[in-house]
Structure prediction request, 365 residues.
Amino acid sequence: MRIRGHVTAVAVALLLLAALLPTALAAGKKKPNPAPITRVFDLHCDTVYQGVTKGWDLKKNKGAVDLGKLRKGAYLAQTFALWTPPMGGWTYLKKLNHKFETWMTQYDGKIGLATTGQEILDREAEGRIAAVLSIEGLRPLDGEPEKIRALYEWGVRILGLTWWKSNEFAGSSTDPDEEKRAGLTEKGREAVRLANELGMVIDVSHASDEVVRQVAELSEDPFFATHSCARALKDHNRNLSDEMLKLIASRGGVVGVNTYVGFLSDDPAGTVKRSTYVDHVMHMVGVMGVDHVALGSDFDGAKPPMGLKHAGQMQLLAHDLLDEGLSQKDVDKIMYLNALRVFSQVTAKPGPAETLAGLAWPQPW
Ligand SMILES: [Zn+2]
Prediction:
């Protein structure tokens, strides 16, 4: 009996092994997620909106950004945009901010608001992910620039002037009415002045070419295009021409490259790969220099390419950039240091020299 029992147990074990083996082999074939080689500072995602409209949770959701994916991607900082749909106003904006605040309280042990470069580094030292707050489009401000002070109180430090249509502040690159695409209004100029005064980074993604020119002229501080691609590779008004890219770089600014397939390529949405995203990054490096390119995923607001579907895959991109021949230091710049440099410079008044001197961790620039 004992022998028979033993043989039966072995047979069962072998059967089990045979059943599991194909799965194990298939899993072995799959390229494993590489070990993190750098950190990530992403300049744009729409996860808060998904939280408000679909009840997504920051801890875990079916989208591209949640705490597990951010941790897996070795994120230093994630920017959360407050984006108000066309029918929503100031009240809707407050609702978005309430959702963001709720998450920050709920997951206090894992993530926390950062309003300066130093605070990003503080979150890192605490073992937490830094959450940066931005607004995408000033339309919900009802044409009142002074409301920017309220945004500042909430912790907003990146100020997106406009969205898909022009508003009381600035012309949009995609406004069907060409006249409205013109530059900043008087209120828009006031918004730029206030951003400079308070220490908020202006964001020209979605803005018309003329707005980019005027911000470059008016703003005392460097600025972001938080989620924009290269027009030279994909002809779309929403993308930045080489002239715009050079202008942003000449003012010390940074462009976060968008993962949205519709801005990356003319190819059908489902066929665009991560390599096309790499092409946009490398084009911008060529045009602006490596000190001015960053990441602006637009996750949870737009469809990303294959192989770069969520925050947990960001380290794959870092490896791709190394494969392109960039040095580890240059990869670090693109993945997080450039965004951190400009964010630090602008948010900590009175000036960049003092800000950078105050940074305790790492100072490779
Ligand atoms: Zn956008």
Summary: Residues 38-358 form a domain with the TIM Barrel fold (CATH 3.20.20.140). Residues 4 and 10 are 10 Å apart (CA to CA).
